[in-house]
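Researcher: Please translate sequence to structure tokens.
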Amino acid sequence: MYPIVIRYFDQEKEANEVYRRTLEYVQKYYDFEHSVFKFFSKFDLTSAVSYEDAVEACESLGLKNVDEDKLYDETRKLNQVFPQFEQSINSTLSVDLRWVQLFKVTSTFTELPKIIGKIFSIPISNAFVERVFSLMGKFVDGRAKLLISGHGEG
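Model: Translation complete:
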């Protein structure tokens, strides 16, 4: 019985060490303070969006087709309707659905939807791509091989 207990503690110790080193690596090489994702959290509808943040988002996203005059008007209107909207919206809705509700209430917005659409189109994982490759594998005979012409099987 003792060897099993010792093996369990060794595995737990090893797992904790892997976790510690991974966390240390991520903290060292990933800038959490200046992350674009941290900036985009300003669009989570917990508060109104400022014109300056909207313009900065356009620049970060590389959006060139946004009329800044209309964007200014829209952020002003958003700030006016936001307190009423915040009270009436279902807080259990996800952020994207809250934006949909807001755009239904303020159907005159044309520039903010461009920004929000671009933000929500950023994939948060590569699961979709992995799924596509998995499906492609079902239609291809065998695995694709990268071979240099004249070397190996061909």
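Researcher: Any highlights?
Model: The chain has a mean pLDDT of 81.
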